[in-house]
Amino acid sequence: MTDAESRLWGELRGNRLCGHNFRRQVPIGPYVVDFLCFAERLIVEIDGEQHGFDDNRLADARRTNWLEAEGFRVIRFWNNEVLREIDAVCNAILAKLGGPKWDAPPPETG
Q1: Residue 36 phi, psi (nearest 5)
Q2: Is 84 a member of any domain?
């Protein structure tokens, strides 16, 4: 996993995001998606800068169209969004899930 994927997985794993069950690196048809909440049919993709190039944007659009045709919803974030604005990313995911606003747990002190 990339740093951004690891960071987001830390918030999604173990039903930490308001009880929603996410899995990572899930094969769906010809694709492997970054994160999936199957109960809500929501896919979360984390994109690096290579996804900004025209060819990759077109491939991502085809991928999203295929996944949506299969009944999934897809939400995408850039790596830097996840690394710099994790609370906003989690709240955007919850908004897609129709859930309440997420409050990050306080940092652990040792």
Answers
A1: -140, 130
A2: yes
Spatial separation of the C-alpha atoms in residues 49 and 57, rounded to whole Å: 11
Q: Is 109 within the bounds of a domain?
A: no
In a domain, 103, yes or no: no
Q: What is the pLDDT of residues 40-98, one digit of tens each?
A: 999 999 987 654 446 677 888 899 999 999 999 999 999 999 999 999 999 999 999 98
Instruction: Report the half-sphere exposure of 20 (CA within 13 A, side-chain side).
Output: 29
pLDDT at 39 over 50: yes
Residue 20 counted as domain residue: yes
